[in-house]
Prior knowledge:
Two copies of one chain form a homodimer.
Chain A lengths: L7 H21 L7 H8 L3 H13 L4 E2 L15 E2 L5 E8 L3 E8 L4 E8 L7 H17 L15 E9 L2 E3 L4 E5 L4 E4 L1 H8 L1 H5 L3 E4 H12 L8 E6 L3 E7 L2 E3 L13 E3 L2 E2 H5 L1 H7 L9 H8 L3 H25 L3 E6 H4 L1 H15 L9 E4 L6 H16 L15
Parallel strand pairs in A: 3-6, 6-10, 11-16, 16-17
Antiparallel strand pairs in A: 1-2, 3-4, 4-5, 7-8, 8-9, 11-12, 12-13, 14-15
Helix pairs in contact in A: 1-2, 1-3, 2-3, 4-5, 7-14, 9-11, 10-11, 11-13
Chain A binds a DNA duplex through helix 1 and helix 3.
Amino acid sequence: MRSTPARQGSLREHNLGIVLREVLEAAATGAPPPSRADVAAATGLARATVSALVDRLVASGLVAELEPVPTLRAGRPAVPLAAPSGTLAALGAEVNVDYLGVRVVDLSRAVLVERVVHGDYRGSDPAAVLAELGALVDDAVGALPGHGADVPDGRPVRLAGASLALPGLVDSTAGTLLLAPNLGWREVDVAGLLARSSSVLREHPPLLANEADLAARAEADLRRADGPASFVYVSGEIGIGGAIVLDGQIFGGRHGWAGELGHTVVADGRTLEQVAGQDAMLRAAGLDRQAGVEPLLRAARAGEPAALAALADAATALGVALSNVVNLLDVGHVVLGGTYARLAVHLRAPVLAALSARVLAGPWVPPTVDVARGGNLAAMTGGALAVLGQVVAEPSAWLVEHEVAGAG
Amino acid sequence: MRSTPARQGSLREHNLGIVLREVLEAAATGAPPPSRADVAAATGLARATVSALVDRLVASGLVAELEPVPTLRAGRPAVPLAAPSGTLAALGAEVNVDYLGVRVVDLSRAVLVERVVHGDYRGSDPAAVLAELGALVDDAVGALPGHGADVPDGRPVRLAGASLALPGLVDSTAGTLLLAPNLGWREVDVAGLLARSSSVLREHPPLLANEADLAARAEADLRRADGPASFVYVSGEIGIGGAIVLDGQIFGGRHGWAGELGHTVVADGRTLEQVAGQDAMLRAAGLDRQAGVEPLLRAARAGEPAALAALADAATALGVALSNVVNLLDVGHVVLGGTYARLAVHLRAPVLAALSARVLAGPWVPPTVDVARGGNLAAMTGGALAVLGQVVAEPSAWLVEHEVAGAG
DNA sequence: CGAGATTTGTTGTATGGATGAACTTATGCG
DNA sequence: CGCATAAGTTCATCCATACAACAAATCTCG
Lengths: 408, 408
């Protein structure tokens, strides 16, 4: 954690990052693609400096120059800068309780390839499942330009790295999964097993992270337009995942285990998961555990007392747990993800009421409860974005240095 | 939150901070005062660069050159560098439920002046109390060299700034106290009232912060020797304060309100404060509310069942609340402060047991429960250190530029 | 006791990145 | 067609750090 000394190169690295971020973020906020001059004005850097930096970024495919659009004003038309498509991409994989998948996302946030397999992975064999995932990863990457048999006209896609989302506690430095209660996995050498079945992951050791953390990252990305977001993300799945987002950044804690909300004690020794987890709700509503959340929604819509009571109990427990979190973290915004997003009609109002009643700072900064915008596969996108975030944080590592001479 | 562009000056600022920190931190870790060469080796900067930076810092009184000690090795003897005494200092004030005080601390962490007044400030009049504090502040600063009537041989102490610790929710940008339940204060224009009674605070608008946050900062400072500390600080007072320390830094949240632990719901709707607050414990033990914590300790030592039960209930509630916090934040270390420090004999074991049982990551990173090392007045020290921390973060703002020419 | 070894701190010179002003390019407008 | 306007580039300058050579102050060993 010792801060490193700043040499001159650090300056360039820093400013390169600022320029790159400025270009990539423009699209997110709905702003038109900025020109070099716009970037200079926005960042406070000199035009000459920005020009030099942009040229480097363009040469390495980290920034794309668009066609000059017919301008309305006088003056030389600007060259719009934007996130490039298909130059640099990252891979986000996921193993969850009921599905398995891979996504490859590029700097423009376009999904280049996607593979998803549904199944029931509770109590599954880690080696077998990870072998399947490894094959899926290699298959997906094989479909990328420049990686499969075909090398078309365009440049090949560079792969910046890979990540893997898991529904449990992860040791990201060792590349192992410590504990995933709902998968029934414990102390699994995930990185090692994946390296056996996937040449891609052998070359790009995946960044392991918690599924909720990565889903929250995708969610934060979707909310960039509203400014840097701070919120608590609660993801109802078979278990309950949680994540903390501060100023658009995931707060993972020392080991990346922060956000563990499901095991919060809410009342008389019961944990949140035992009251508001999917299995618990279904059982309380008298429904089959395997059925999923749709029957519960139907029953509630039909006015079944057991279903309504189950949802009310879950909402109360969620409200208590989240009030504690909001008081502790001074983050007044809650986002409901996973199956909670689908149950939001029944959960939102009572949770908000609980927050309003219990949050000490409520009178000055009213709490909010929102529904996640990311879809089911948010964690894969979030994982890819986490890797791309490393690129933005350290752009010079991804620059391709060209020869000074170079006559065509 | 937009990151500013790095000009060349930023480089210098950054490196100046690194060098300053290296010198100031050396004492904390028990290392001998480093020489310029030591700093260069430790930071990775060139000797020439360090020399130039150190010279600036010395000229402005941010670093002190000690007498060369007779060395044991060959070579030119080194000039030891250390934190200077009495050159630059910060003021930490505090209003709490049962006392009121000021401390002035310099860069060497020496307490230059201290004033404390004991009293009962529950339900007090804010204007009167703050007038009293303002007078106390001016009195304390008047006793500093160069600020009172006397201007002795040495240079005057420069005051870097002031801070004020309050047991409640604070709006630090507006300089107001929003809510302090145990003082009975609400929406008080603290900065405005203090400016009336204190010329010092008129010149140095105090940084308002939560008492527990600042006490935790002092605690983190005392633990620097063990490396950057991450812990949850629980301070038992009339109410219950809490603070989160991450890598030696206070996590205050968006508005500085994070750490609010006392209003956590622990069981059947009761909050932690209602079970483990000082008043609640005393009542449960059948003791007088005004008595303070000593009678409770005596009763427990005598084996009184009511006292033991009160402590046990408090410990259980604390254990549950802290388990939730540890699971949420991935910070496995708890420090008991305030009156909890004195009750630690009775609280520590059961709290640790609760953590061990409930913390999901416990098997891999065992939780710990520690007793605070800071004394009663930790918040004042912490407040002063917070201000000094700003100096270290931006040293160039505190440099005194000398004329190039200067013949004596 | 003196020459060499050793380590600290300082004094140039070189390097690399940002800056600002002048210049070129490309457009709209009258 | 000339002028205004704005984008992007070129170039001399500045500034902080690096590197190397040097001066200073002490120990060590013959």
